[in-house]
Amino acid sequence: MPEIYVYAVEGRTSEQKRGLMKDITDAVVKNFGTDPENVTVQIIEAPKDSKAKGGIPFSER
Amino acid sequence: MPEIYVYAVEGRTSEQKRGLMKDITDAVVKNFGTDPENVTVQIIEAPKDSKAKGGIPFSER
Amino acid sequence: MPEIYVYAVEGRTSEQKRGLMKDITDAVVKNFGTDPENVTVQIIEAPKDSKAKGGIPFSER
Amino acid sequence: MPEIYVYAVEGRTSEQKRGLMKDITDAVVKNFGTDPENVTVQIIEAPKDSKAKGGIPFSER
Amino acid sequence: MPEIYVYAVEGRTSEQKRGLMKDITDAVVKNFGTDPENVTVQIIEAPKDSKAKGGIPFSER
Amino acid sequence: MPEIYVYAVEGRTSEQKRGLMKDITDAVVKNFGTDPENVTVQIIEAPKDSKAKGGIPFSER
């Protein structure tokens, strides 16, 4: 509480994902005054043929 | 803006997914008057043992 | 199955929303071969102070 | 209607997932009076480097 | 962990929602062996003109 | 791309929400190297009777 979900196309490293989840957690603690242990972040990555912008899959952009 | 998410059981081809993401994007442009470059669509596919209808996993239906 | 979710900032009419949900349903039926009665669409609208692009709330853009 | 989504870190067996989806379906039928065939449940599992609690990935907790 | 989301059309009482959230929490504890204090459930209700089945809004079904 | 969703119980001010959305956007830009104009954040707030922890609604905790 709160819970944060990041929807992204695949391709980031574990290091990038760790950094993002840490910084988002810090942002929630700072702005909402939440105990960090109550903050969960999950990244939902899509294969490049399963996410599109402008109607064009990322596998073709 | 807006962003669209499709939750489905696995098993569709890249061609089917491309077609769906294109047609959903067109539907948003037509009805909401959005620039297509502002429309993202992501498909979240579940393995057949991770989605159920009527309490029965798709791996057993 | 599948289920579709549209995340948008508030401000569209019931007529626009009906049109979008109808066209998305048709897109699923056409591309995935689903019975339309198995397709659900839900629109999750945010107040303008609860959605941001580029870090700026829609209430200030 | 309704549709239920469970966000979890990976690592449960098919048997655990079947049991959870069955019990959640029963809970919806009992409390909301829904026909079970109208209830869908999908589990969205994250790799351990893609979910964090307290800013720390489950791959490191 | 895990977190559960229920997407439904509006119209249930606080009593029905309390019962559902309690029973879903119990289902997670039973099947996944989680501490109940680690289970969150959120219900996302849509106005009847913002959810459709078969392409028809619940305001017209 | 990516898109971020924050699920929370109601009760934060517009100022708190603006701050959170700004800081999350900055975190995505820093860690994923994204153009900020491609980052959207939406907060989905639940009434206190529609979110529970440990099976108990926030209206009763």
Automatic annotation (TrEMBL), chains A, B, C, D, E, F:
Residue stretches making up the 4-oxalocrotonate tautomerase-like domain: 2-56
What superkingdom does the record give? Answer: Bacteria
Q: Which organism is it from?
A: Devosia psychrophila
- Keywords recorded for this protein, A-Z: Isomerase
Question: Which InterPro entries does this UniProt record tie to the protein?
Answer: 4-OT-like_dom, Tautomerase/MIF_sf
Q: Which Pfam families match?
A: Tautomerase
What does the similarity note say?
Answer: Belongs to the 4-oxalocrotonate tautomerase family.
Report the GO molecular function annotations.
isomerase activity
Q: What is this protein called?
A: 4-oxalocrotonate tautomerase
Native organism taxonomy: Bacteria, Pseudomonadati, Pseudomonadota, Alphaproteobacteria, Hyphomicrobiales
The keyword Chloroplast appears for this protein: no
